[in-house]
Amino acid sequence: MARQQVDRYAVIGNPIGHSKSPKIHRLFGEQLGHKISYSKLEATENTFFAVVEEFFRSGGKGINVTLPFKGLAYEFSDVLGAHAKNCGAVNTLSFSEDGRVYGESTDGIGLIRDLSNNNITIEDRSILLIGAGGTTKSILPSIIDMSPKNITLTNRTEKKADSLRDTFSHLFQIDCVSGEKIDRNYDLVINTTSSQLSNTVPSISTIAIKGAHSYDVNYSYQPTLFQNWSSENGSRSALQGWGMLVEQAAESFSIWRGVRPETVIVVDRLRSE
Fold first, then answer.
1. Alpha-carbon torsion angle 206, 209, 215, 221, nearest 10
2. Residue 181 among the catalytic residues
3. DSSP bridge partners of 116
4. pLDDT-based confidence at 271, cuts 50/70/90?
5. How many CB atoms lie within 10 A of CB 229?
6. pTM above 0.85, yes or no
7. Contacts by 163-166, CB closer than 8 A, 24 or more apart
8. Strands ordered across the beta sheet of 7-13
């Protein structure tokens, strides 16, 4: 009997040791009866292109791209999906039969689906985004697509926030404000900063969070610092990014395999570990 071919996928980043992507995609494969393998690739900015090319040349089918390479993955792509075009970043690379590389961004879809799973709507709501890095850039177009009432952007380096606002000014009018100067509350506050790594929370006026849904794109096995800060300062709910992580992975799996796995059971499994 012929041995079934195992399709190969990977995630590339730096650092990459902590990545949960191999486990998530293994669970997706088991759930749907797909024989796949999924590994971790480490690279530097100088070796990124060579590592990706070698993976595809040796028969790899697709790569997830995490920090700090989403901009380089955008450059590497021959064909861009609609979300990647809008946000200027790629987190999912696929190798097609004709030898071209297709790049898409699934981060925004992942966030929107997780918010929806938790009954949080964006339409006609006021949104505060904390941070002006790659994650904010990759989720902003999807947030704008959902027709919010208004969007405010705050970042430690105000120049970076202004630059991001200008990038999306053709799609939506975004306000920029210093965190300490915020004098109103919001319906939804999303933290995209990596302040958790330095054991701090962003410098934000506490009025912003009062009565708001709070969402930290970071994730950990305990509540994140931002979750705790939100709850202590009167947020309506406080979520972290496990759901977004799994939902964006499911979207990548769907691009590669043509079928979307069930996500809730995978989120629950990861959270319970």
1. 50
2. no
3. none
4. confident
5. 22
6. yes
7. 163/132, 164/132, 164/136, 164/137, 164/140
8. 36-42, 7-13, 62-65, 92-95, 101-104, 79-80
Residue for token digits 């202590």? 232
pLDDT tens for 88-97 read 999 999 998 8
Residue pLDDT, tens place only, 169-197: 999 999 999 999 999 999 999 999 988 77
SS3 124: coil
Copy the structure tokens of residue 98. 């004709």
Which two three-digit tokens encode residue 217? 């794109």
Catalytic option among 20, 61, 70, 159: 70
Residue type at position 134: G
Show the tokens assigned to 209.
């969070």
What are the two backbone dihedrals, phi and then psi, of residue 186, each rounded to the nearest 5 degrees? -130, 165
Cα separation, 94 vs 82, in Å, equals 15
15-36 exposure pattern, b = at least 16 Cβ within 10 A, e = fewer:
ebeebbbbebbebbbeeeebeb
pLDDT tens readout for residues 135-159: 999 999 999 999 999 999 999 999 9
Better pLDDT: 5 or 166? 166
| Max intra-chain CA distance, the chain | 69
